[in-house]
Design brief:
Low-confidence stretches: none
Shape: elongated
Number of strands: 7
Largest sheet: 5 strands, mixed
Structural class: alpha/beta
Distance between the termini: 57 Å
Strand order of the largest sheet: 5-4-3-7-6
Radius of gyration: 22 Å
Length: about 170
């Protein structure tokens, strides 16, 4: 049926769904065991939210339900594509996925701590960087004492690896 024969009031308003963190086409969706726990917890929270939708207006309820369903579908796709990597099973001598790092940045006196995690776990304020980030990419396969440089628009940033640890 053409849109000419549909009343405007019958049109379902599509909710604006916030996207998941970016995962490039073809990239492996690595997650730590804690990252998988986080995703499964988010799944349970969305299911609970869906059960508890309460609106007086049927249209508002449908829109809210559509939003939760859309978020849920994106999350399920992410969970289904996840490849859990146990950091403790990694070779401990080099920087790999799941590594906790102590880094000296440029000539800074105080070291910074970072953990290389999956895209859904990344949170720079918690020191968690995505394994797909430029910083993680230049650090991969380096050993303690190695330096890695990241070219920036206005120069470069040098990272010296002080410690590599794979404990949680």
């Amino acid at each position: 049926m053409s849109r000419g024969f549909v009343k405007e009031d019958d049109q379902e308003e599509l909710p604006m769904v916030p996207p998941r963190p970016f995962l490039p086409e073809g990239a492996t969706n690595y997650v730590t065991p804690q990252g998988m726990e986080f995703l499964l917890k988010e799944k349970e929270e969305l299911l609970e939210e869906k059960k508890n939708i309460e609106y007086t207006n049927d249209n508002e309820r449908r829109i809210a339900k559509n939003l939760v369903n859309a978020k849920f579908n994106l999350l399920i796709a992410r969970i289904d594509s996840a490849k859990v990597v146990n950091p403790n099973a990694q070779k401990q001598d080099r920087v790999r996925f799941g590594a906790n790092l102590k880094l000296k940045l440029d000539n800074s006196a105080s070291p910074k701590n970072f953990k290389i995690v999956g895209v859904d776990e990344a949170n720079i304020s918690q020191g968690k960087i995505s394994h797909l980030s430029p910083v993680a990419k230049v650090l991969m396969e380096k050993k303690v004492g190695d330096k890695a440089s990241l070219k920036l628009e206005n120069g470069e940033r040098v990272f010296e690896i002080l410690e590599i640890d794979y404990s949680s």
